[in-house]
Amino acid sequence: MNFRIPLRLRPAWRLLRLPILALALYLVLHPALAALSATHGFGSPDGMSLPYLAIAALEVVLRIALLTVIPAVLVYRVITRLLLGEKPSAAVSSRANARTDSASPTP
């Protein structure tokens, strides 16, 4: 299946694809952790298992990313795009090109 994003929607897709994927992964892992918690979590007669601990650690990392990192990056990208009118990487490269294009005196 060939999935193509229309040209006018690509900037929005680039901005939102990682948060959407992280949210989808979190929504898949949360029920899995709940199911593992019933059999291998806290208070289990066999103790906590390695899969439970691994999924719990991954879910904690995803929660931190969804609550702090992703909103901070989105706000940075939106403000940068509003202030500069272009991508941050393009702004940095255009400044670097301006410095290298200027004539420098040779000793």
Q: Quick gist of this model?
A:
The protein has 107 residues and is mainly α. It has 3 helices and no strands.
Structure overview:
With 107 residues, the protein is mainly alpha-helical. 75% of the residues lie in helices and 0% in strands. It contains three helices and no strands. The protein is elongated, with a radius of gyration of 23 Å. The model has no long low-confidence stretch (mean pLDDT 77).
- What proportion of the residues form beta strands (DSSP E)? under 5%
The total count of helices amounts to 3
E-strand count: 0
Mean pLDDT: 77
Poorly predicted ranges (pLDDT <50, ≥5 residues)? none
Order of helices and strands: HHH
Keywords:
single chain; 107 residues; 3 helices; 0% strand
What's the structural blueprint in terms of helices and strands?
Blueprint: H1 10-40, H2 50-84, H3 88-101
Helix pairs in contact: 1-2
